[in-house]
Amino acid sequence: MGRQFWNTQLLDVLVEVDRRAGITPHFKSFMTRENMPRDQLQQRLLLCLYGLGTNTGLKRVAAGQDGVGYSDLKYVRRHYIHRDALRAANAAVVNATLAARRPDIWGEGTTSCASDAKKYAAWDGNLRTQRSIRYGGDGVMIYWHVERRASCIYSSMKSCSSSEVAAMIEGVLRHCTSLSVEKNYVDTHGQSEPGFAFTHLLGFKLMPRLADIAHQRLYLPNMAFAAQVPNLAAVQAQRSIRWDLIRQQYEPMVKYATALRLGLADPEAILQRFTRANAQHPTYAALCELGKVLRTIFVCEYLHREEVRREIHEGLNVIETWNGTTNFIFFGKGGEISTNNLEAQEISMLALQLLQNSLVYVNTLMIQRVLGSETWRQRMTAEDWRALSPLMHHHILSR
Length: 399
Hints:
Elements: H1 2-21, H2 38-54, H3 58-63, H4 70-80, H5 83-100, H6 103-106, E1 112-120, E2 130-131, E3 138-147, E4 152-158, H7 164-174, E5 183-186, H8 193-202, E6 205-208, H9 243-248, H10 250-261, H11 267-273, H12 282-304, H13 306-329, H14 342-371, H15 374-379, H16 382-387
Parallel strand pairs: 1-5, 5-6
Antiparallel strand pairs: 1-3, 2-3, 3-4
Helix pairs in contact: 1-14, 2-4, 2-14, 5-14, 7-11, 8-12
Pfam family, one: DDE_Tnp_Tn3
Organism: Deinococcus multiflagellatus
Protein name: Transposase
């Protein structure tokens, strides 16, 4: 009985978001004519999105509905639900959330997001599923981009060996929401010297959490400057920055960055060219030099300012909470992506993102309604305001 109430409540969330933000209008048929009444199509679309986003499947959803069969949902899934429509629906929900936020409760508009990957078990009869060295077991990686107040602006499905730096750049460039990203928080493995260089050329700041801070080295502008900072001798690199190389390769670096910005090249393909295996490539060497400059500046700021470290940790804590909430929503089939069709895998990911963004939107409105009362606002402490988050699901009954 608990599962029935929980299902109905989550479906109610999806229905409410469709009414306010308009999810279903983004799903158009590939056919030239649509004979199905729109209200009937709306019901079946929402049921399909729920079945895909929770990973319970269309058969399980159809079994609990009167007048809607599995063949009906399968027809709607095949003719209406595709990746572009799901990305547009997600962007609509995120934009509605950003527009509805009250600055007196959530603070001024944010220009930053955090990105991180999470491994999901998946069938192994396809080219994307790989064994993860870090997490163990076969699966795929879903790379999430979540802004400071818990709305996911972009998601991408990658193999376990894919570059997280490339996925980070892709999300910032392709998210298609109204959020303007100026800072991106990543964990230690989400940054590299070419990553620092490309993000600078693309106009946003890479801010990693440096777990290996003790192994970082500072590169000086020239070796003569070393005499002015004798206390840094233990952490200085053995050479200075090669400014001449950066000047020589400036135009090729800008060319590659422009290709990324305009979508003429895939970040994964670009960064695969610039690895240690191609260390002699002059543009790669120049990107590493520019990355050394930017990383040195960042390390100094990271060590000097506690508020920078706190900001990065807060941003990454939000995405950790997002990852934890996906376990609650994507509960069907033990959380395993049970298909070998690559497009179907991405549709499951995007439907999960849509359900969770919808939960964030509704929670945002509910919290604002409660805190609109002066009585409740007076009961809030500084710790309560700091912990305030729309990423909660305790009011959704457990399955």
